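[SOLVED] Predicted holo structure with coenzyme A

Edit: marking solved, answer below. Original request kept for reference. I posted the sequence and ligand SMILES and asked for the 3D complex as structure tokens.
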Amino acid sequence: MRPAIRPAAATDLDPLAALDQVCFGDSAWSAESWAGEFARLDTDRVVLVADEGAVAGYVVLLVPAVTEDPVDLLRIAVAPAERRTGIGGQLMAAALQRCAGRQVLLEVASGNESARVLYRGFGFEEISRRRGYYAGGEDAVIMRWQEKVS
Ligand SMILES: CC(C)(COP(=O)(O)OP(=O)(O)OC[C@H]1O[C@@H](n2cnc3c(N)ncnc32)[C@H](O)[C@@H]1OP(=O)(O)O)[C@@H](O)C(=O)NCCC(=O)NCCS
């Protein structure tokens, strides 16, 4: 069964912080950082969760009030056991639906092949690199999505 994609509710805060820890380990956001994201849900943050009874994945967007400014896709992740079942794609599709008419930027480690393939599949294009940005010397790749107007 495909999960429902819905906006995060206050009760998702702890499960999201726990799943973030599983998905990102040392790079996970702290409980305080997650609380900070939730505090901004009424202003410039959008958090969508993939709900299968439990939280199976999430995406976090920074959506500036100024519509000319690009949206930043801050985070997207899926529980390890649920990957390659289409949930990341579902989350991305739902996120981009909310970004009609705007640019979306994201940053990804050059070696994160699964994420980069996902992003390219949705039409993100590499626009720049920060050489050796991450600990260990990996590049940060900046990618941009813009809705195709036909
Ligand atoms: C990146 C991530 C969110 C993808 O989620 P997912 O649910 O596995 O993605 P989907 O199943 O929807 O895959 C969509 C497409 O992305 C590509 N893709 C996803 N994982 C891939 C992998 N391991 N290798 C190659 N392509 C991959 C494929 O094109 C896939 O389509 P297909 O399965 O029909 O071939 C997931 O791997 C993840 O949580 N990674 C850890 C967190 C992370 O690095 N997030 C990004 C940085 S913020």
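OP edit: The beta strands are 4-7, 45-51, 55-62, 71-78, 103-109, 125-130, 140-146. Thanks to everyone who chimed in.
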